[in-house]
Amino acid sequence: MDAALEARRMEKRFGTVEALAGMSFSVRSGELYGLVGPDGAGKTTAIRALAGLIDLDAGDARVLGMDPRAGGAVREALGLLPQQYSLYRDLTVMENLKFYSRLYVLPRDVFRRRAERLLSITRLDRFTDRRADQLSGGMYKKLALAAALLHEPKVLLLDEPTNGVDPVSRRELWALLHEFVQGGMAVLISTPYMDEAERCDRVGLAYRGRLLLEGEPGALLTGFDEEAYEIAGGDRERVESVVESLPAVRSVSPAGSRLRVDLVAGGREGVAAALAPLGAELRPVAPSFEDLFLSRLQGEHAA
Amino acid sequence: MSPGHSIEAERLSRRFGDFLAVDDVSFHVEKGEIFGYLGANGAGKSTTIRMLIGLLTPSSGRAMVAGHDVASDPEGVKAAIGYMSQKFSLYLDLPVEENLRFFGGAYGLWGKDLQRRAEEVLELTGLAEHRKAITGSLPGGIRQRLALGSAILHRPSIVFLDEPTAGVDPEARRSFWRLIRDLSRGGTTVFVTTHYLDEAEYCRRIGLMVDGRLVALDTPAELKRTWVPDRVLLVRGRNLATGAASLRGRPGVRAAEPFGAGLHLRVDPEAWTGAAVRTVLEASGGEGVSVEVVEPTLEDVFLAVVGRGDEAQAAREVAS
To answer: Is the ipTM of this complex over 0.85?
Structure first.
């Protein structure tokens, strides 16, 4: 089947910065594709190229087989939520949505039905009369997302849409995206958050303008052969301060009431010995996405 | 004010027109504690912070911060605290160390004292190697450490961090939280809001806001025990959608949400075992189904407290 979104060896340089260095991937209709990676990996530039907002130095961006800079049919098929977006600050929540509805010439009953649903999902239904400049950062973001979804585009590009959005709304937005995707929408989403990467059908790990790794989250994890550990027991605060000072420990982070630790190769025995007097123990656990990506990125830094 | 407390809020409220943004909120924060303040967008977190740092006068109630009354002595509060807002501002065209000198000057530090303190902060925040770099050329995670650094130059006893890690990648977030914990161990009180509940686990205690009210306040472990008596199951496999839809309607199934290719379930432990869930999913076409019992997370707590419970529903009805 043809790709709804296609990035073919995209290259783009801004001055001395190589933002895209031959990045390629494709997204099918009915697929949710996550572009993950640290700051400066090229995620935003890739999205801007696919939205037809910038010209590439080399390579191609295609939306439903069309050049996204063409306008017309491609414009209608495409929804975009950039990181920096502007709504009309002096209009209310509802007025902003009405404005977008007119832009896309939605029939009134279609607008009413979709607006009601989007407002409920984004929990903005109590704030329809509030002016956009009176919304908190997360609410403003949710309104922008609702506006981008209003015309139910065939292809949706989302650049870090959940920054500053609360966990309940975040889950509901993900459930909503899954629903649109099941209805055939192709969604490309960039995010710095690894738990969100795991919610995608496929993910690509971007770094320095290209993909280091791509695949289904489950399959990628299955193929990851490094060990991950948790520390259980003991007084967490005390355990943490001891563990942090051990050279074999690359990083420590909380995992529920336990601590997750990233160890250098061969560091296991030393760490276990240091934990024993604290009444804590080291246990191997299934690696998470964050383990996988951090390990690959550290590999790149070292290379 | 109790000597062990950094912050005491007593029946604090703030009204904007007919909108009650903060509604009768009381709590205290102990000295040196990392205190997390969580809630949905628009729940009143930032409004509470703005009152506690002396930027906004309470409509009623009172709050003492570092020994100063926020209503009658807002200037005393401002001198005693550090604040890093959601959209922190730094001079992007200045080098890192000049930003520190500028903010230090704004806090009344100068000469040798300013220089010494700027050095300390560069060390503490791990920015010494970037001191000459133009701030705008640095990645977001490093700028964020600089923003925190400039908020602690004047050695405040309390720092308020309003969503300090929004949009920052995991590596940078970890190093930021290491810094927050160092501050706390050094005796600084940290009052922090975040939407990332994995990092909220670093907090000693957490307050949860719903529609302007503080509805829960406890340690992460106690919050889990109180609010999530359910069994939490992580399901993996293929073709789970039909089974998930059928589970959703059944008694004892409190939530069934997509999680990547899998499912996140909360069930009544009396009514459901992992095996029973698996049977249902397999009967509706699920393949390769595995079910794992997992520890509830703070996200489960958040969903239970803030989710569309009766309270949120009631609030909506009152509002409409």
So the answer is: no
pLDDT for the residue B316: 38
pLDDT band at B308 (very low <50, low <70, confident <90, very high): low
Q: Please, what is the average pLDDT of chain B? A: 89
What pLDDT shows up at residue B313?
41
pLDDT at B96: 95
pLDDT band per the 50, 70, 90 thresholds, residue B319: very low
CB pairs under 8 A between A and B: 124
Q: Chain A neighbours among B 232-291 (CB < 8 Å)?
A: 236, 241, 257-262
pLDDT, position A221: 83
Q: Which amino acid is at A228?
A: A
Domains and CATH numbers, chain A: 5-217 (3.40.50.300), 228-286 (3.30.70.100)
List CB contacts (< 8 A) between A39 and chain B.
139-141, 168-169, 172
Which residues, numbered 126 to 145 in chain A, qualify as contacts with chain B under a Cβ-Cβ cut-off of 8 Å? 126-127, 135-139, 142
Count of beta carbons in the 10 Å neighbourhood of residue A24 = 15
The two three-digit tokens of residue A255, written as one number: 């995992």
- Give the chain B residue nearest A298 (alpha carbons): B171
Confidence at residue A32, expressed as pLDDT on a 0 to 100 scale: 95
Check residue B157 and report its DSSP letter: S
Cα separation values, A152 from A3, A122, B51, B203, B248, Å: 18, 16, 41, 40, 26
Q: Is B139 on the interface with A (CB under 8 A)?
A: yes
- pLDDT < 70 positions in chain A: 1, 302-303
Show the domains of chain B with their CATH numbers: 5-224 (3.40.50.300), 229-295 (3.30.70.100)
Determine whether B73 is exposed, middle or buried from the number of CB atoms within 10 Å of its CB (0-12, 13-18, 19+).
Answer: middle
Its pTM surpasses 0.90 = no
**In angstroms, rounded to a whole number, what is the distance separating the alpha carbons of residues A95 and A109?**
16
**Mean pLDDT of the B32-59 span:** 94
Which A-chain residues 225-284 have CB contacts (< 8 A) with chain B?
A: 240-241, 244, 251, 253-257
- H-only helix segments in chain A: 43-50, 73-77, 93-103, 108-121, 137-149, 167-182, 194-197, 217-222, 236-244, 268-275, 289-302
Around Cβ B57, how many Cβ atoms within 10 Å? 12
CA distance A41 to A102: 36
The count of residues in chain B is: 320
Is the pLDDT reported for residue B318 higher than 60? no
